[in-house]
Design brief:
Layout (H helix, E strand, L loop, with lengths): L9 E5 L4 H12 L3 E6 L9 E4 L5 H15 L4 E4 L15 H22 L7 E8 L10 H20 L5 E8 L6 H5 L4 H7 L8 H12 L9 E4 L4 E3 L2 E2 L4
Parallel strand pairs: 1-2, 1-4, 2-3, 4-5, 5-6, 6-7
Antiparallel strand pairs: 8-9
Bound molecules: NADP nicotinamide-adenine-dinucleotide phosphate (NAP).
NADP nicotinamide-adenine-dinucleotide phosphate (NAP) binds next to helix 1, helix 3, strand 5 and helix 5.
Amino acid sequence: MSGFDISGKTAIVTGASSGIGAATARALMAAGVKVAGGARRVDRLETDVRLELDVTDPASAERFVAEAVEQLGGLNILFNNAGLALGRYPFDESNESDEDAVFNTNVNGLVRMTRLCLPHIREYGHIVNMGSVAGRQAYESGATYVTSKFAVRGFTYALREDLLGRPIRITTVDGGLVETEFSIVRFKGDTEKAAAVYKGIDALTAEDIADCVMWAVTRPWHVNVDEIVVKARNQASGGRILRDA
Ligand code: NAP
């Protein structure tokens, strides 16, 4: 069966300055999609359209969407990828500032970007949310991040209900351990702690996740891939990783 030709379509990728967002933007562009990337570190963007975006700031998000849609000349695909975790500690050590940043980015930011983009997605639409295995099963010392990714999963399925009948497909890609700058951000710049996360395991790469996104968006038009769950071979669950095997 033939797939869906995305060449000539348009896409917004949030968090396109690094890791999964950068890799997916590259893959989309290689397939002939015109991509507008957004991030706070605008100097690191390599997309067709490069614009500053802070998904936690309503004014920034509004400005970004208006400018991106104008420069793209429309919008088909939204990859809601911007996100982060902060800290790895039992919940009784949590604090207001980490909780705010994680919920405002991963949940409020993703919901906001979706709301702002929706009126522009008129045909051949696809919203792909970057979920996580943390949004399916809790692991220890990650309560805030786990909560945020459960919310992403809930939102994905709520959208599926509310947008039924519209020409928009909806997918969540729930990744396991992916080696990106994610852990450097999580450990607030501590590169030694970050490196330990990927030690002794062949982690997924950003390109592996980009492959999943590309697969979902290129299925025949009548197919909606609701969710993709993907982990490294030596990772059974969020908290269970076999090292040096
Ligand atoms: P990464 O390399 O740290 O990239 C995170 C991206 O999010 C960066 O481009 C960053 O850009 C952007 N971002 C963060 N806060 C933002 C904000 N307020 N406004 C706009 N952009 C913002 O990490 P990654 O692994 O690629 O993470 C991408 C997504 O995958 C996240 O949603 C993460 O939760 C999810 N994920 C990661 C893993 C993993 O193991 N790495 C596993 C499953 C899911 P700026 O800092 O330039 O703004």
